[in-house]
Amino acid sequence: MVKNVFATRWGIIGVGAFIGIAAALLQKFGNPGNMGICVACFERDIAGAMGFHRAGVVQYIRPEIIGFVLGSLVAALSFNEFRPRCGSAPVVRFILGMIAMIGALVFLGCPWRAVLRIAGGDWNAVVGLLGLAAGIWIGVQFLKNGYTLGRTQPSPRAAGFTLPLVMVGLLVLMIIYPFVEGQAKTGVLFYSLKGPGAMHAPLLISLGIALVVGFIAQRSRFCTMGALRDLILFKQVHLFSGFMALLVFALGTNLVVGQFHPGFEGQPVAHTMHIWNFAGMLVAGLAFALAGGCPGRQLFLAGEGDGDAAVFVFGMIAGAAVAHNFGLASSPKGVGPHGIAGVFIGLAICLFIGFFMGKKVQKR
């Protein structure tokens, strides 16, 4: 047996450091400001590229998402950890994925981007991070009271390859229908001509970095939601040390390359409506806690054959379409016309799931 160095204390710190440096450099290479890596934003862009929503400024198949899944797949296959399983409340997980995405798009970022925004000097993200912690804290209370989505069951090996094959398909589509300058649609794919969707690092750089992140994150079990959950529930700092390393090394890299611009106003792809920054991430954090992982962790789990995590990922992509088609997503101008209603509805659904998916309630 070869020791899994990535799962050690210094291993998880190294993983967080690599992700922080890589994310800052991806921004330098062309990704949007304070968005070197954002799982929610990038899945939103993929939904737009497929035509599931028509917000023209956020349409691009992000190779980072593809790389995360395929890198995790390679790691799982290499170390005999590819274990296809599924069947644990798939409909609930799909809904939680949708709600998590809606909350994240009200805030404008996933947990990873919340940290990266702080590392870039965006103090609005501090409010969002507090909301994330509050949502996870609520989720922990449900966990303490017996909340569960039930047990997964082994599934056919082919089923475990479902999401990785979808990601390979997306990569093939990018190759067959590449971006053409000045053209908003190439074949079946939509491309942004302006806005965040038009800002991206070169394909091979993005894909290469993401493959490495997917590999080491699968080995280390890196998870931002899990870091806060374990800190609150068990007072364990193992995952949290990786979380903090991401922040520290992203901040350091931003200082070196000149990407640190502190303040509240004028931050890239951000707004200053603090109540809804907090509330959006509270809902997202609660959904992540109820589903058992942050959006990055869900991609890594799906790469190792977890069909329930894949359902959550598809839920997030569907949630992105709903958020933009129904005016729930925010913009730098502020919360969308129906974003506040989306936050309250999402919170109500999460609370319903939390109360009625407990072991005691299910036995009645």
UniProtKB/TrEMBL annotation:
Look up the domain of life of the source: Bacteria
Give TM regions: 7-26, 60-79, 91-114, 126-147, 159-179, 199-217, 237-255, 275-295, 307-327, 339-358
> What name appears for this protein in its UniProt entry?
Uncharacterized protein
Output the Pfam families linked to this UniProt entry. Sulf_transp
Give the lineage: Bacteria, Pseudomonadati, Thermodesulfobacteriota, Desulfobacteria, Desulfobacterales
InterPro entries, alphabetically?
Answer: Seleno_YedE, Sulf_transp_TsuA/YedE
**Keywords associated with the record:** Membrane, Transmembrane, Transmembrane helix
